[in-house]
## 1
Amino acid sequence: MNLVARRFRGLLGPAFALMSGLASADPLAWITNSASNNVSVIDTATDLVSGVPVSIQPSPRAVAVSATRAYVTHDNGTLSVVNKSTRFVSTVTLPSGQLGGVAVSPDGTRIYVTGTDNDALYVVNATTQLVIATVPVANPTGVAVKPDGSRVYVGYDDGFTARVAVLNTTTNALMSPIGLSGRDPTGLAVSPDGTRLYVCVFSSATVAAINIDLNVNMVLANISVGPDPRGIVVNHAGTRAYVAEYMSNQIGVIDTASNTVVNHVNTGGNGPWGIDVSADDTRVYVANYLSNNVGIRNVVNNTVVTRSVGNGPIAFGRFIDEYVPPPQVPPVLNDVPNQNGTAGVAFSLDLANYVSTTNADPIQSYDIVAGALPGGLSLNSNTGLISGTPTLAGRGASISLNVSDDDGASTSDTIVFTIVPPAGSAPFDVMVPSANPSVRGFSQALNGNVAPSRILSGANTQLVVPVSLTYEPTEDMLYVGDFSGRAVRMFPADAEGDSAPTRVLDVSNYGQPRALAVDTMHDELVVAGSGCFPCTWARTDIGATAPLRRLGWGGNTATQGNIPVAVALDPNNDLMFIGDSDSVAPYAGKVLIFPRTANGDVAPSRVIKGPTSRIGAGSPYLAFDPVTRQLFVLTSNIDPVNASIRHVRVVVFHANDNGDAAPLRTIEGGTAQLDVSAADLPYGLSYDPSTHRLLVSIYSNTAASNRVLAFYAGDTGNVAPLINLGGPNTGFDKISRAAAVPVNRLFRNGFE
């Protein structure tokens, strides 16, 4: 029998039950008192001895703790099991006269006990308290378990040298041992990350540092420490190992990065044996066998206090409970109702009114984890106040919200917002160009298969095939792009019947006008046609007037222009947006952005294009809100599975976006009623600032399939249209870009 084995003799016996109150919720230190036959309990929250000692006989020595039990070895072949809540003690009898070290698997299901008299490692089922394996190990002493539970390490002496036995816990079979320098290994400790094993070697006064990462099992260093090293522990951070140096009455402090001793500190007593560390790594606890106390060393301020316990404290092993934080009970977020607001009107929602805290934990933060608030609103993540002034009317904007307390516990809810236009928003007429040829007007109150309120049509109108319509407010005029008539015709906004245009701009030298945009700030008119890339005229030009500017087109590579179908302007920032598409496969829609004054064959400043943008292969139609600087793009693509279906959507960007930018939001889905037959096309988009509405035109060769849908500009997702205007009674025939015209207009002679 080796020296360490002899030190374990003559200490232990039958156990009995004792009730001594409930255990603390804080980590406890379980100190085995070998000469007084009991276990003292120290509450590490206060560092005071808690209650009366738990009587346990004879001569308790090594100890290990699980979540619910403390396991104590004796030298009579018994293992005491202490219920930590009730302090009830039961006994497991093992086939060995003297037991040495004890350790518990990380999941608490297995107990590993060294039997020094029987040269064995016992594997005990913690539930049944039966031995399920007896593994031969010569003169075993200390034992430690890898944090993942895959390996158990046992110190032993084969009669010639110290070694470490390695147990595969899956098979309970031994692997190749680890050879050490010296004789008589005592305490073992594994680093929290499971990469290092530290073994006290009694005869040589060293600690072997062993690499066990990936089961390398190679000695890295033999670290000289004080005489008679017994217990060892690695702190939870893995930065320090603490060694109980029995003969020098000190704690050796090992830096695990360098494997060197960086300090020796006193223990507050004599004969230090078992050693452990607090859950927060600030204190080291050592059982001083010869002084009948526990020294508590504060490693932060380098002080030590002692607590008297029973006689002959040993506590060989991990004797402090692993800290288990209290359950993180999340705060209660009562269901926040969906919210309504008004564009242009201040909005406020205090989320704190819907939150109840638990465990007296204050709320730490309010965070949006998905979705986005309507434009103009923001969340104060500290207070939970959502406030601001909404800028756009819309439905379906939503946020997923997390509310977290200072323990990190959180709860969530989803809030849907509806923002309506300002009260008393101007009523409007929907004016729709139709290939009949006509411009057909419908009151905003009309919806579905209804007859127009008025019709502009007849020989005097000179209309051939009108395809684009824009309302110009300074003159209260309708600008009509007449594709086949190769002209832009201007009519009073209330024109109807067989009325002649007030002015006509002849663009026949520059192709067939597809798209119009009026810049009232700079008094200009931009026209994009089938025979040219956008041309700019003075707004009041008439006849066959040459344009002020003309962007290059027709084989020119710089502009990247091919099929311009839409123009939108940001006059406040001197920008022009052009809806276009590639001329070669794979065909892709794109938005080209130029300076307003761009002229000739010049490259765009930016291009929005790519799969993330969700701009489809079809030519994109545009609308722009100069207040929020949001660019609306009407686009489509053929269903990849069912080629008879065309998916139509409105994707929204900020005016500063570039490249393959993700949309701010999208309007699409079955409820939106945008999807059409593959033969039909989205054919125009416009924005009405007075009511915050978007008008979407759907072109079809089938008269009954032509329709105009209206959405709020701030809508998102699969929302139903506000109106769906279509059917035989409308008289629609191959319709194109509609426009909203305010009804309550007082424009006469420049006065409002």
## 2
Amino acid sequence: MRIEDWLGEDNQLGIDIWHKKYQRNGETFDEWLDRVSINNEYIRNLIIQKKFLPAGRILSNRGIDDEKCSLSNCYVITPPEDSIESIYETCSKLARTYSYGGGCGIDISNLAPEGAKVHNQAKATSGAVSFMDTFSQVTEQIGQNGRRGALMISISDTHPDLEKFITVKSDLNKVNYANISVRISDAFMKAVEEDKDWELKFERKETGEIISKTIKAKELFRKLCEQNWNYAEPGMLFWDRINNYNLLSNTKSFKYAGVNPCAEEPLPAGGSCNLCAINLAAFVKNGEFDFDEFSYVVQEAVNYQNDILTEGLTRHPLKEQQESVANYRQIGIGIMGLADMLIKLHIRYGSEEALELCDKIGTYLNYYGIKASSDLGDILGQYKDFNVIKVTTTKYWYKQVESFSKYNLTMFPFIHLRNSQLFTIAPTGTISTMIGVSGGIEPIFANYYERTTKSLHGKDIKYKVYTPIVKQYMEAHNIEDDNNLPQYFVTSSDIPVYSRIDMQAVWQKHIDASISSTVNLPNEATIEDVENLYMYAWKNGLKGITVYRAGCAREGILVATPKKEKTPIVEEKPALKRGDIIECSSDLIGRKDKIISGCGSLHVLAFFNPIDGALMEVYLSKGSTGGCSLFMVGLSRTISLLCRAGVNIFDIVDQLDSTGACPSYAVRRATKHDTSPGSCCPMAIGKKLLEMYQEVQIELFGEEDKKEIKKTDKPIKIIPSKALCPECGEPLIFEGGCNSCKNCGYSKCS
């Protein structure tokens, strides 16, 4: 069999991925199959049928014994202690793990906050956040067969450096080679709901010094959501849910130390990801899902991953990893192809029918996965610290028993678990792209992607490349325009955001680890939208959530300069037609400041065209002291629309200046003497926007050469730029918590 026979002659992307990532030493496809399956004929056939695939490290490294390489995708490193020695020992552990091909997660909650006293020449520590760049640089520097490592840095929601942690990536030159997340507790979320104070506190064991600060929980939550809105980070890890909803939650000797880079694997110190994915789309037969075959494949997947775990024990780069994996034997049986499966069944993603079906599949996944692990445990022995009473009295177990009963699955007479963790839903970006199905539990990102090719005349020609299942359906039904597809063909932009969370919640009920999934928001989404989403996710039992707003600042910082240079497309037109709206680029220049109005503080966030410095978008939000939130939302949207309709800033400010005087403004000016220039909120906002505009002009053109926009200036239409692939230069997409390229198969996470 040839690789072309497996993936299809027209699947050049999948073929390239296989050659570049998984083929070793010029081996044939059959030789690769033998190596990956170790001559397990059943597993070999499952791979050929695209029903089952182990994760990338296994596909690349299993059977390769003559080099130092891991079979695990990622690890969690023992959190560094509050000492220079421990911090740099952590750097050494990161470097060693990266050199074996594994990504890493570390938690920095043990590190003292900025200003804490130290007994050396420094007198005070620079703080936990200051070492994030150190860890990030290690990730950048250690290569992994042509790619950089992956890193997740997390911190507790009570750490005094939390505010600095939240905003650290606002500086586009900092921590560029790490994802960051905050460990959010139930107590914090309840404090947000009830608008209570929240204490940030750290006690140094060495000196007994206590560093504390009290802030409003709602203000901190707002700041976190604002950063997510603009930078897609930090992510939120609902830490109490992670700790309290798994098979080990009643085992006092066990403790999670952090999460892997994509956050779907909470792990103890030294723990590793041992992952695989079952392709749900391959089990649709005659318009129905084949639960019988699926159940059997789940059991075989558990057996296979246990074999991998045993084989890989001596191949972990660190002793702490070898010991942790041997003790807890964590594996991660996951899924991919969910969106393709729903399309094949003519079910709309996120619908009630979809939720009910996923609940049933998740129940069968859980039941037969536990059964297989118990069968192995009966023969080979259980994981260390296994206790049947402690396992069967967990919240997680009770919830599974309810589901087993719902679908008439007979309860186990006994359990002897071989594995302390069984289920994980990873992004599966590379392997799902290779075989041409949707990744993890993600919906289809888009019906088609634009690719660029050089014509005979040397010009860049863009053409549509349809997502495989869309292409198959259109060809089978002679459809030429994807607008004519049935209603169950939906993309991430078509699905209500709360439906995305509902779908993740259904799966999380059955997953003892976690899930990596991305809620995609349109550019016009507000910070309040992000706040509401996070609150909804917490209330619905998610263990974490990733939000990505189109056009956010992260698009411009996630990747290095691509090999293939791109020039921005700028088209000047004499004037906009009535009703035309200027499209914003993703590399807008941002400015943020605060004004004091009659009602209190107002935050002003403005974005300017990087070419001529014209104002493009404005976001206004009230501080904690008052004001009308809805008025601010309406005003900011109106100003933004005027900007993108070709109205220049001077005309807008003229209108804001003519709105008159506000009595509350006059009272505050007379009593507190702290109001910003102007006599009402619109006037103060206008003056601040003009001030920001002048700053941007100087930044772009200098004091002498700054460009002034006159009323006669012609508008410029900017075609949105995207984050570009560092390998081929084509636009990246962000799904499953990871940037991926649909042109060459590059993925930041694999």
## 3
Amino acid sequence: MIILRILKYLFFLVIIMIIITFSIVYINLDYKMYPLKANQELYSKNIWEIDTDSLAEELVKKMTLEEKIDQMYGEKMYKSIPKFFGNFIFKQRFPHIYVGLNERLNIPPWVLSDGPRGARVLDKDVNAVTTFPVAMARAASWNTNLEYRVHDVISKEMRANKTNYAATPCINLLRHPGWGRAQETYGEDPWLLGEFGVAAVKGIEKNNVMACPKHFALNSIENSRWVIDVSVDERALREVYLPHFKKVIQKGKPASIMSAYNKVRGKYSGSNEELLTNILKNDWEFDGFISTDWMYGVYDGIEAINAGLNVEMPWQDEYNYNSIKEGLKNGEISIKNIDELVLSTLKTRLKYAFSYDSLSYTHDLILSDSHISLAREVSEESMVLIKNDNILPFELGENFKIGVIGRLADTENTGDLGSSNSNPPYVVTSFEGIKNYHINSNNKVYLDEANDINKSVELAKELDQVILIVGYDYSDEGEYIMSRGQMLKSAEAKKLIGAKGVGGDRISLKLREDDEILIKEISKVNDNVVVVYIGGSAIDMSSWEHDVPSIIFSWYSGMEGGNALAKIIYGDVNPSGKLPFTIAKNESDYPYFNPYTDTITYGYYHGYSLFEKYRKDIAYPFGHGLSYSKFKYENFNLVNYNSNDSILNFSVDLTNISNIGGKEVCQLYVGFENSEIDRPLKLLRDFKKVYLDAGEKKSINFKINKSDLSYYNTEKNKWINEKIEYNFYVGGSSNENHLMKISNFLEL
């Protein structure tokens, strides 16, 4: 018996050693890196001059059924799984996955890299990439040109890492600030989401990288994303949850789009014919291809094919040869269905594979000085000065004692560690940034990670300036990974079943208890305090905001965040960020949100439209953000309009009435208070970020398309413009007290 038991253990040990050895050998074989561009030697003329649509049609005709199916998924499991686990265990990196490769027909593959804040997949001998602040931070810049430049850099570094497909941008709506992946998107407003999404797509595709906006659609809960069924009426769907996707599709023209995990009206998004075919392909005329999110993106391959889903990722599961062959045999699908899906995918991919490259995309592009400088610029422009009772910028005195206090004060904290993760070469923490700033002065900078509240308070008594660092990290919010079975059990019970994983949705919008205690106790003994919040969305500050004179939202601010923070605190940079969401006074005023539910209804109102409609008090409005400058708005006018014009033109004079140059985000809203149907009181319809020197005056121009004043008529299934008196507002936030107003009756 003992011998048998020993032999049994030895057998299992040998098996484990074989698996480990295989994985090590496999990932170190330096598996072949396939070229992403077409082979010029195979063609008699320049590849960018070839009619790729015709070529795609020829290639599909030459494919066997198995080759066609091979175009419809990522990789076979037996290839992918060792690559995944081997790389994660031994190399701590994400592997290259070659999709759609066909060596017989000389079809180059596409290789995915996530990229909300930097390229994720790294080439051999590349250990780091430029890492930017998270998307929510960049939305707070209200600078779409900056977002375009960010994605230009990200796509250059993707190409240098031998990838050509970007699973970004995330343009899901921030319906509730507790959503765990809020940091990956651009806020609560569909207009802002759309404008930033278009900028991101254009920046990505400048370098012949295929963009993939995600997650289509109504994905705004993380913990139950694989099982939740979202109900929504048609007007809310068309006017609130889809317009940003429509704008990105029609103006950005991305190569692809990613379906969501959740159900919409009882059908999984990955096999939802209404979403994928009727709306996306037919109504919006999208001619790219649709990919699933990774794992559990398809539950019924035949249903997904009929719905118009092109590609299952990351490996073959439901899109397998046997089930598709059986579906063809039974008449559930036709070979025409397969050919159409493969053809649309191939046409798109070949367009990029055969396109002209203006750069060689070598490794020396990665982490160039200009890229790092841009990361710092984005951090500076995205931080939001929420509150300032005339203590910032801090004085640069002599022999000052300065304390950077908090458990996150010296933590490298760039955000979620899921699919949006990025590997920076370094991270300048808040403490390092403040310390660097004073390196050549006689001021002394103290670090206190608040392990002992009493010691922190005693230190604060002796300090001239206190910088409190509070907030979250990847363990508090972000992508949430757990088994689908466990997720289903939690959803059915409407509560967590089992141990909570890393990240996920936030149940409460309050800070951690130790952070709140720290703020309250330090503020009692020192009046010269600024609270710096690190995180990806709105928080409830009601229990402590009145105790402190200054608050900054620094977000997850990327690799240069600490340096940017120091420059803002000491006035080298004038803060110009604005909130991309509303902060409620009462957490209960937000829409219903339960991370552990299997059903939910998404309503017509959320964010500032909800708070304004129902006259709910708020803490800080959408678009709010303070500056060290002061700005004055004058002479707001509708410049020209007649019923034949499709564009409304507006102008306003903006003056910097302070003695310091600064940037202002001018926001234009349209009011529907006089509508005969239920509509928001007002909606954002244009914005401009402008710089003015001290005392400078500029005329700011805005444009609104008449179509952007319409609503969706569910009886006629079309967009309708009302003949009513519209109100137009301009100012520095959505707060009605900060806005100028004009009214005009329009016969549209």
## 4
Amino acid sequence: MAKKKKVDQIRELYNLSNNWTRSQWQYINQKGYEFAHDEQLSHEEKSALQNQGMPTFTINRILPVVEMLNFYATANSPRWQAIGVDGSDSDVAAVFSDLSDYIWNLSDGSALYSNAINDAITKSIGYVLVTVDTDKDNGMGEVILRQPEPFDIYVDPKCRDMMFKDASYILIRKVLPKSHIVKLFPQYKRKINAASSIEGDDSYSERSISDKEQKLFLRDDSTAEDMGVDSSGEHESTLELFELYEKIKISYVNVFYRIPPDKEQLKAIQQQVQVRMKEMAAEMEVQLMEQNKQMQQAVQEGKMIPERYELEMKKAQDMMQNQLQAAEQEYMSKLQAEASRIENNVITEKEYKILIKDKSFQDSIVDVVQFYGTRIQQTISAGDKLLSEVVYPENVVDYPLIPFHYKWTGTPFPVSAVAPLVGKQREINKSHQIMVHNASLGSSLRWLYEEGSIDPDQWEQYSSSPGALLSVRPGHEKPTPIMPAPLSNAFFSIVQQGKADMEYLAGIYSSMQGDTQQQHETFRGMLALDEYGTRRIKQWMKHSIEPALRQLGKVIMQISQSVYTANKRFRIIQPSAIQEEREQELNIPIYNDMGQAIGKSMDYSSAKFDVRIVAGSTLPVNRWAYLAELKELLQFGVIDDIAVLAETDVRNKEQIAKRKSLYAKLQGQLGQLQESLEDKDGTIETLERQLVQAGIKGKVMQAEMEITKKKEEVKGDLKDSYRSTEAKQKVLQNVISNEVDSTRKDLSRELQFAKKELQSNNKNK
């Protein structure tokens, strides 16, 4: 019964959303979409032109506008950055950019994003759906992106938030064959096959629109039912498939509870209490002894009888024992309270009602705070059967559907870029058709003739042939050509003005599309023209597309944190980087010595960080201007040549970077070797000078010692020959003098030789 009620509720929400305002919005934007894709003439218009002999061609001026707007918005893939809430999450937050690129590439994000922007330009809004493919990665699941059809999505009409955050529901409706739905949800095959179509009251307000207009945008359910063909070749019945996303309120309880100390802490507390009690007992024993002494003295002096003495002593002992016990309990409780910690945990009210039945849990509770949290619930139904009803994890608080508006109106019905151009496109088409028709009439004349004067078949066949001889029956007036009226110059002006008006309305000018006649002569002038010409586009990107991309990054973060909870390794491909491929790893398990998992590093699921879009990351970059800017930064020394190489399209740049890095490393090593050699050369020179000086000093000292020795020997000889003759004394003195002179000359020569050798070494260096 509840399931049937839910299916009926989904139907009611669909009828509520499918109102007159939405039908008008869908009709206008469907018309714009058709004009952009060169479906600019209805069947009735083509028939009328053909009956009048007029051409039915169109000159599509809208498609180039769509293509240029799409190019500016999708020239590059978006880049997200994550900032950790605290320091411990910074490393995990840094990996989010790589993870978002991984999800983007896994989902073929470039093509998907381009289609969503194309929908925003032509249909006023495009969508990206963040979902989970549970079958990927061997059942571990992968976060992927999808691009649903905008006209299949129905949003709460009362929504006023640009990202639909305040919408109470978002509904996706598709009409599909049963076999297709079974392929989407094979686990519900039995329910799908047993489901029957609901004959709903499709009393849309657009019924009042003419049948001609309805054919342009309304889905014919009877035709849709003939879409499917089963294996036998017969037509297969179809079902309405609804995916309902709604925000629900769930009651939560924030429980604050006390965690008592563990066994080790209790053991330490008991030891502290014992030490403290021993100190107190010792102090009280001293007091008791003093009291005992005073009462004994009182008994001796007759001031107290012995019976009173015994009674008072017993009371004092009992009191001391009671005080010790009370102090022990008080001190124990105090230390346990200090060792205990207060923690809180958020659980659902349902979980709280189960846990509160436990007495130990009751005793540990300090405080309880009840509140309501927002959760996203997904409900899927096919026909009259409810297939599934799933509540998203707690951290997912935003809708997985992200809208990309062209021009937000404050409602779920924005304005497209194409809608204002439809009238001008009709004007240009009509002007061209008239001019071509007029030129055709000028080259193929019409004739006014008297009945019976000519052979009509002959004139019809040969009247436009060069050099033809056409007969006229005698007695009749010859035929008179009917010349077309001269075409007014206003038609040519209308075409040119219409082209200029379309450029003005769209903000896409001829120079932006490569029109050389509109290009500026100088490079700086071209850059300035590009800057001024793209301001409207940049404003659209800043206020419409980048907020949507920022919301997309947030939703990817929320859903990926609930999916990637186990150890995961993924590869990132970056074609523009030096290192085109690299691997990242999340939720890396940490094991103890026993091989048991005790935690994990790079814990992605529990990390807290904020996500933002890199402003202007999707806009096109003027390669020449960018490279010129990099060249200037290189000259100023702000960046190195490797950074410049990474931004170029040079082939094999990774190998080039490796070679340059190796060359720079070798150069550094060579410089260090040169410095080391210079240091060693200086040390050698110092040592050589020291050795030379030490050698000279040694030789001088040795010579002086020899002179002194010889003097002493001579003095000894003189003492021995004291009584010799004077002649002998003079001879001996001459010998001594010659010896001294010879020694001094030898020393002088050695000194000169040492100086020359030192000078020669310095010159060679």
